[in-house]
UniProtKB/TrEMBL annotation:
The protein, known as: Peptidoglycan D,D-transpeptidase MrdA
Lineage per the UniProt record: Bacteria, Pseudomonadati, Pseudomonadota, Betaproteobacteria, Burkholderiales
Keywords: Carboxypeptidase, Cell inner membrane, Cell membrane, Cell shape, Cell wall biogenesis/degradation, Glycosyltransferase, Hydrolase, Membrane, Metal-binding, Peptidoglycan synthesis, Protease, Transferase, Transmembrane, Transmembrane helix, Zinc
Coiled coil: none
Similarity remark: Belongs to the transpeptidase family. MrdA subfamily.
One GO cellular component term noted in the UniProt record for this chain: plasma membrane
Enzyme Commission numbers on file: 3.4.16.4
InterPro entries, A to Z: Beta-lactam/transpept, Beta-lactam/transpept-like, PBP_dimer, PBP_dimer_sf, PCN-bd_Tpept, Penicillin-binding_protein_2
Species this chain originates from: Collimonas fungivorans (strain Ter331)
Gene name tied to this protein: mrdA
Segments traversing the membrane: 20-38
Amino acid sequence: MTEFKNTEHELRKFRLRITAAVAFVLICFGLLGARFIWLQVVRHDAYAAQAEDNRISLVPVVPNRGLIMDRNGVILARNYSAYTLEITRSKIKGDLESVIDDLAQIVNITPKDRRRFKKMLEDSKSFASLPIRTRLSDEEVARFTAQRYRFPGIDVQARLFRQYPLGEVAAHVIGYIGRINQKDADRIDDSEDAANYKGTSYIGKDGLEKSYEQQLHGNTGYEEIEIAASGRAVRSMSHVSATPGNNLILSIDIELQKVAEEAFGDRRGALVAIEPSTGDVLAYVSQPSFDPNLFVEGIDQQSWDELNNSPDHPLINRPMSGTYAPGSTYKPFMALAALELGKRTTSFAINDIGYFMLGGHQFRDDKVGGHGRVDMYKSIVESCDTYYYMLANDLGPDTIHDFMKPFGFGQLTGIDLEHEQRGILPSTDWKRKYYKRVAAQKWVGGDTISLGIGQGFNAFTPLQMAHAVATLVNDGVVMKPHLVKIIEDGATRTRTQTVPKESYRIPLKQENIDFIKKAMVGVTHEGTGRAIFAGAGYESGGKTGTAQVLGIKQGEKYDKRHNNTRLADNAWYTAFAPADKPRIAIAVIVENGGFGAAAAAPIVRKALDFYMLGKRPGDSGKAASPAPAAAPVSEEDDAVPAQRENQTRATESTEDAYKPGEETPGNRE
C-alpha cells in the first residue's frame, strides 16, 4: 500500500526551523550590536584612554642624590655615572649558575661579585634586575654588547652610583645607602612619598644618609615615551626633569676628624668635639670604623661576617650608642652642684685620710694615706675621691639626678642621627623601676657614694659628656648638638641653617661657672693633665677620668699590666679651649685604655693642637710636642691603686648591696 507524505505538515516544520534559525541569528547579531555599542559608545572614553596608555609609557626619571660636604666644602659623599651588568632572574631560562659561568667568559666576575649577587637575590622578592657587576669598563661593555643576543634577561645599564671618597673617615656620621629591599619597599608603599620612589633602586640605610633621606633623595621626574606594537621605544613625547636632592653641609671639620681618628691608632673608643656657642659637632669619632662603600651595592657575606663578628665591633656607633661610667670627669659637675645648691663653698675643705666611712663600710681613696687638706679647687685638680664620697652623701641621689638632668646626662641630646641611647642618670625612682626583685629595688648608701666619683649606676654616652662640657663652658646656654649645619636646596642653592637658636638656659651663677673652669684649667697646669699639656701654646681646661670595667675582688690588687686588654679600665678625658672664650669642648673615651691621663689625654692634645694651632702630629715649629704619655702625672698616680667592687655600669647587677666591713676603692686617674 502506497504511503503519501503530508506536504503541508513538512512545510510547517521547515518554516518553523527557518524562523528559529533567523531568530537565533538576529539575537546573536543583537548581542554583538549591543556589545559594540557598549564598547564604542558607552565605554569609548575609558578604552580610548587605555589605548593611549598602551601607546604612551611613563618612564620615571630618578633624581640625582644630594651631596654631603664638610663645613669647608670637602665632598664626603658624591655621585658618579658608570655602567652596570644586571640580571633579571625571571627572564633567565635554565640554570642561573651556568648562565653566570658563561657570562664570566666575557666579563670578569669575581667570587665576591657572585656572593654579593646571591645575597641580593635572597633578600629581593621583586622582579627588578639586580647587578652582578658594577663599574664596567668601556672594553667590557663593548665585549658584552657584541654577545648580547646570547644572554636574554641580562643587560647593561647606565646608573648613578654613590661613593664615599674618604672611605672609613667619618663613616659612622655619613652612613651609607643600599639597594631597596622588601622591608624598605613595604615601608615606602605605606608612606605618602611612594610615588616619589618610582624607579629608585637605593635608599639611605645608616647615618645621615638615612636620617636625611627625604632631603637627599630629591623629586622624581618622568618622561613620556611612545611605544611601538613590538614594545620598542619610538620617540620621547614630553619630559619633566627630576629635581635633585638637597645638599648637606655638615658642621664636621673633616681635617680635625682625620687627626682625631689617626690619634686613636688601633685602639677602640670615641671622641666628640662640639663648638659650645652653636652646638656644631666639629668631630665625631667612633673607632674602629668601616668602609661604607662596601654596602652600596650590597655587602658580600664574607665582608659582612668580618665586620659583624669582629670582637672590636666596628659597626657600633660608640659616641651615641656606647654607654659608660664617666669616672672622675663627673667631678666638676658634682662640684658645680655643690656650689649652686649651697652644700659647699669654694674654701670649704676636708681632711682626706685616704678613705670615707659610711655605716661600717670603708670607701677608699685612690691615694694611700689620702690627699691631706682638700678644698674644692684641689679636689678637681688632684681628683680626690674622698671629697666626692662625702659630697655625694650630703647631696643624695635624687638631688644629684635633678641637678644633672638639664646638662643632658641620661637624656637624649636630639642629635640628627637615629638610634641614640639615653644612658642612665640614676635616682631612687629609677632603681625601683629597673629591678624586678623587691630586695634589689631599695637604694642603699653605697649606691649614693659611688655616684660621686662617676661610678655605680651612672652610664652616659661620650656625646652626652661632650654636650655637658659644652653647656658648662657656654655658661649654661644649651645648644642642641647637630651634625648637619646647613641644608642647601638642590635646585635654587638657597641655604637654611638647621639649629638657629638656643634650646634653653640653665640658671647658674657666673662666679660658680668661672670657678669650675678655673679648676679645670688647673688640671692642665698642676694636676693630672699637666705633663700632656706642657708647652701647648694655648690655655685649655680639662679633666681626666678612669672608669672600672671589671669588678675586682676584695684583697686582689689592680695590676697595671692589665692595661690595653679588654679587662683594663676605660680612660676618659674631657676638655675645652681656649680657656677664656672656649671655641671647642671635647670628650674622649679609650676603651680599656687604663689611665685617662696616659691614654685619652694625648688624643685630646693632638686634636686641640690641630684645632687651635693648625698643627698636625709630626709637625714642628707651630707648637711644642706633647710630653710622652708613658706614665700618670699627679702625685695620686704614684700610689698603688686600690681595689673597687661592683661600681662599673648601671647595666651590671647590683642586687647584692654593700655589706658593712667591706672596702670600696676610688678612681684611678
